[in-house]
Amino acid sequence: MGTRPPAKAGSWYVGQPDELEEELDEYLASVPEQVDGSNLPIPGARVIIAPHAGFTYSGPCAAWAYSCLDLSQAKRIFLLGPSHTYYLAGCAVTTFDKYHTPFGDLKVDRDAIQRVKEAGRFADIPPRKDIAEHSLEMHTPYIYKRLKQTFGSEAKFLPIVPVLIGDNDLEAEKQAASVFVSYMKDPENVFIISSDFCHWGSNFSYTVYSPQNDWRNLTRLRPGDRAPAGPPIHETIRLIDEAAMDAVKGGSHDEFVGNLAKTGNTVCGRHPIGVAMAALEHIREEGATQQGKFKVVRYERSTLVKSPSDSSVSYVSAYAVL
């Protein structure tokens, strides 16, 4: 199908290569040299969760996940993201041969695409929807940057395997996860899970609040309401996100899905995260590793909400060692 253009370049992120590289360098340089007591990248950190908003908002947070990512043994990169541009039941794979970035091209592993497509009976992403989708594209500049840092020449770059994970229930997520288990166990594969966390505001139809600072006891605010007299709204958002992050760190796919059902937290990449967690959980149950649980290294919000008329989006970076 040829090359997918970088549709968000020049709007969601800088389109000029020199300026974009300067921006990413700045974000990456802001990450400490050590995370969780380890020099970066963290050995064996082959699965990461990173946000996908405009770089001005989420780029600094994403730098933490990408700094942790270990590419030293990798042969390919799986990129799993949610669909924002059309309703998707099940999963779907790209039809493109390359993803273009302002830096250059990332080659798509068509063989791997065909294998997972057949194994999971995945659909094809309609090309126009693929171009419009930002959850995959927003990772490509960071992927290119980290590949350049690790391998130098573009000729040595790893291919990518872009997959959209649709609006699946618990059992469908487990079924999709079974497609990726063998790849996730293989040290030659890394996985990038694309997700923002809480989207709060009337424009997201999510305006929950807890006067008691308890995520288990939520009410709803209206845009015209006054700012609550109790704890600020952003404290409720933090508590809701922390509950979701605790579920992610706990490693139970069922508990993660149950937590989101309880709070309604608008984690847009909940299905890619769910698939990754189900795959990791399966690997641990096999006894293949005692590791494979996510560690959260960064949490940020686009703004600290105080008024019901405000809005914010939350960003999380995490990694799992296998």
UniProtKB/TrEMBL annotation:
Pfam families (UniProt xref): Memo (PF01875)
Domain of life: Eukaryota
Entries under InterPro entries matching the protein: MEMO1_fam
PANTHER family per record: PROTEIN MEMO1
NCBIfam families: AmmeMemoSam_B (TIGR04336)
Family: Belongs to the MEMO1 family.
Name the UniProt record assigns to this protein: MEMO1 family
Naturally occurring in which organism (per UniProt): Emericellopsis atlantica
Taxonomic placement: Eukaryota, Fungi, Dikarya, Ascomycota, Pezizomycotina
